Amino acid sequence: MICIKKVEDLVPLVRxxxxxxxxxxxxxxxxxSLEALRMAADEGIAKxxxxxxxxxxxxxxxxxGISLEGFEFLDVxxxxxxxxxxxxxVHDGRASVLMKGTLPTRQLLHAVLDRDIGxxxxxxxxxxxxxxxxPLGKPVAITDAGVxxxxxxxxxxxxxxxATEIMERLGISRPxxxxxxxxxxxxxxxMPVTLHAKLIQRIAEAGQLGNAVVQGPLAxxxxxxxxxxxxxxxxxxxxxxxxxxxxxxxxxxxxxxxALTYFGGLECAxxxxxxxxxxxxxxxxxxxxxxxxxxxxxxxxxxx
Amino acid sequence: MICIKKVEDLVPLVRxxxxxxxxxxxxxxxxxSLEALRMAADEGIAKxxxxxxxxxxxxxxxxxGISLEGFEFLDVxxxxxxxxxxxxxVHDGRASVLMKGTLPTRQLLHAVLDRDIGxxxxxxxxxxxxxxxxPLGKPVAITDAGVxxxxxxxxxxxxxxxATEIMERLGISRPxxxxxxxxxxxxxxxMPVTLHAKLIQRIAEAGQLGNAVVQGPLAxxxxxxxxxxxxxxxxxxxxxxxxxxxxxxxxxxxxxxxALTYFGGLECAxxxxxxxxxxxxxxxxxxxxxxxxxxxxxxxxxxx
Lengths: 304, 304
Fold this sequence. Notes:
The structure is a homodimer.
Chain A: H1 10-17, E1 21-26, H2 31-42, E2 46-52, H3 54-64, E3 72-75, H4 82-91, E4 97-100, H5 105-112, E5 126-131, E6 140-143, H6 153-169, E7 176-180, H7 192-205, E8 213-218, H8 220-224, H9 226-232, E9 244-246, H10 250-263, E10 268-273, E11 279-280, H11 288-301
Parallel strand pairs in A: 1-2, 1-4, 2-3, 4-11, 6-9, 7-8, 7-9
Antiparallel strand pairs in A: 5-6, 5-10
Helix pairs in contact in A: 1-11, 2-11, 4-5
């Protein structure tokens, strides 16, 4: 059992408990990716392996004044091949984390899903974002705010499994999972996501979801605020202390994620999970710090 | 044109520009409602008119140590009649704001929608929450996070009209409206809300939405962050400076609202709009401060 209060606490945790993870980054030619890899190398968290047009990467770093000391390179002059070559390094065990640089996300995902050189595991891919959560006093995982658009019940179950595995790898042996909705009761007629939420709870109660302790439907406040739990008189194993928040749709997840980032100013580490290795898929609007924290989370949950 | 930077700036604004609004509150027997009415009376914003079991209200206030100085009363011993009697006071012009105390919301809404004594206007009711928005440096209206569950296109248009009217009454003559989604492009196949968003923009461009300047679909960050607008290269009249954020579903609205409240610690004033008078429908988990700010917003937008 480990105990972290904030996302940034992952940094000393990873640095102290393991060797640097080799991170294969596809086309790190932007300031944020290069800075993030630099920070991760300096912190002893990652060993950057830059995949792409080596002269272009070096020129970009020089222009930006970012040292590439300690970086390894795989020179891939053909831009169309960068995603595949970076992915294959992870496939072959020469890196344990895959990271997107300046490529389009779909190019990297296409390589990840390739049957030969990809990272297919037979499971679905989902995005897990670990956020600082002031009302909880510990980070909370939000999923899936990035990949699955309108997941059906079976996909939602896979999303729960993926996030549960991440939290287990962070040392939380029985993660508490809130399936979010706008209300706490099942409303068949007008809120179908509440039925999904209750069914996932039942499936978990039947022992089909491993160590996950699931409760749903729950509104966000009931999932994270002990005070709201008291006023509303809510009961259950997850109320007021969720480790994982499962959003009903991509829109609610996207708005949630961006509300915490832009209105709340809260830190976040995100990773794509469900392949044979973690993938850091940050967006072009993410800061170097967010990308660095994504690398840190990926290193924390990557296999040996 | 008025200019407020934070929701709390509504308080001096309302106090200075108008006489106290008479607020008919149905069954104010809880600490938060009574405190909120007390604050509103002390600030010169509202003249409380407590409707319900008068001895019970007085006992509650005494127990809580809250002075009822300046309160008027309509003694309604029968609990079943409180909602109707409070609503009728507004219907008859004896109060300009209706407020929920300890009654169930649906009881009060039932009275509001009554054909005889209610506050029907021929329009739909929608919830508008004015929130502090750090990335914008001004409050932003979020709608509808409270009433309309899965609004179709025509309801979304009514929701936009309602929020536009609120912002106009606050002095923003051409409010900028972002119709939120997870992306900025129309994706017919998998994200139907993006089509709604684009259609609402087109309807506004055709002059059918009054003074509202509408753009959609927009992701939340593109609607509120000038920095994201720059990085993503977004253009349009609303990007980076929205006055109104229209959420696609009740789930996304509910999660957004609660993320700002519980994770962001941001202040909010909410009101139900679309009836002949504003209705303050706060939840039992709201603090007295939130209820007070709701009264303040209602007073600001109520008719003379």
